[in-house]
Amino acid sequence: MDFVSQLPKQFVFISVVYYNVLLQPHLDPQLSLNGMPIPVIEKTKFIGLIFDHKLSFIPHLHYLKQKCLKAINLLRVVAHTSWGADQQTLLHLYRSLMRSRLDYGCIVYGSARPSYLKILHPIHNHALCLCLGAFRTSPAVILCVQATVPSLALRRKKLALQYCLMLRANTINLAYNSVFNSKFKTQFDNKPSQTRPLGFRAEDDLQNLGFRKKNVLPTTVSKIPPWLLKRPNCNFSLCCYDKTTTNPEVFKCKFFELRSEFSHHVEIYTDGSKDGIRTAAAVVAPNSVKTVRLPDNASIFTAEIHALDMALDIIRCARSKDCVVFTDSLSSLQATES
């Protein structure tokens, strides 16, 4: 105290105030809107998800559990031993009434601790027991195998990977950098006990699956609203014949008849092929032939659609606007028309 008494009074006052500020707890800010105070709450609900101030998602998990209890009560009534529904019907009810609720927002609340996520396990296992008619003490792994449904952890991981692949194809999405260009990786590596963000969790899973960024084609959203686009004119007259019972010569004659109706049009042919994991698309026009190698493991439907897109590029550059495209893919035409 003798040392303090020798110091100027202003210095002592400032030191005491600073010391008191350090000892006081952090108070919530007093905010107001149009003179009305804005209260500070512990949790809030946003688009169906309950966020708490610690982001533990425990309130949301309890909310999900209460919602799923209603679906279980319905399953319990329908799954009567004497007049109840069969196993397949009960599983359909489980997927539509219960699993759909668990899937919604699981990419967000899946970042909760595994011990917190176990809140949903008993009610999920109970639903499978009702659908299969099994005992309540049956192991959860056997129930999932018997019902041919993944566990909740695998289901969340699958949906998270699908979401990451969708982001990879749409680089302008606002969440792209948060997932694929996540920061503070060293800090999370130094603290393994902390819950890692979605980008870090999905990165390890994608590497285990052999994911490569170049195998995902980028997608773009048209600037023209869909309701302003002109509906394409697709001809399905050859689809009324069955391939297994119709002679190939009949198909050939019918094709020539159809082709004669477009004698004044520029003919363009498209095709997609798949050999093992290799996929390619091709388009043949009167003055050009284009082929392209697609990413490995791409589906044959993707190849057929990509070939139609290549045909549209040729039509845009063609002098004649009367063009007809011939393709052997019924699914691609149906998707294009719809």
In short:
With 338 residues, this protein is α+β, with helices and mostly antiparallel strands. It folds into 2 domains: 161 residues, no CATH class; 112 residues, 2-Layer Sandwich (Nucleotidyltransferase, domain 5).
Protein architecture, described:
The protein is of the alpha+beta class. The protein has two domains: 55-215, no CATH class; 226-337, 2-Layer Sandwich (Nucleotidyltransferase, domain 5), CATH 3.30.420. 49% of the residues lie in helices and 13% in strands. The chain contains 15 helices and eight strands. It has helices at residues 2-5, 9-23, 58-78, 87-103, 106-109, 114-117, 121-132, 140-147, 152-169, 176-180, 185-190, 198-208, 248-260, 300-317, 330-337; strands at 31-33, 36-38, 43-46, 49-52, 266-275, 278-285, 288-294, 323-326. A four-stranded mixed beta sheet has the order 7-6-5-8, with helices on one face. A two-stranded antiparallel sheet has the order 1-2. A two-stranded antiparallel ribbon has the order 3-4. The protein starts with a helix and ends with a helix. The model is unreliable at 9-21 (pLDDT under 50).
Topology at a glance:
Blueprint: H1 2-5, H2 9-23, E1 31-33, E2 36-38, E3 43-46, E4 49-52, H3 58-78, H4 87-103, H5 106-109, H6 114-117, H7 121-132, H8 140-147, H9 152-169, H10 176-180, H11 185-190, H12 198-208, H13 248-260, E5 266-275, E6 278-285, E7 288-294, H14 300-317, E8 323-326, H15 330-337
Parallel strand pairs: 5-8
Antiparallel strand pairs: 1-2, 3-4, 5-6, 6-7
Instruction: Give the N-to-C terminal Cα separation.
Output: 86 Å
| Helical amount | 40-55%
Domain count, please report it. Answer: 2
- Largest sheet composition: 4 strands, mixed
Q: Averaging pLDDT over every residue, what do you get? A: 85
What's the shape?
A: extended
- SSE ordering: HHEEEEHHHHHHHHHHHEEEHEH
**Proportion of beta-strand residues:** 5-15%
Model regions low in confidence, pLDDT < 50 over at least 5 residues: 9-21
Structural class: alpha+beta
Give me the number of helical elements.
Answer: 15
Number of strands: 8
Q: Round the Cα radius of gyration to an integer and report it.
A: 31 Å
Sheet with most strands: strand arrangement: 7-6-5-8
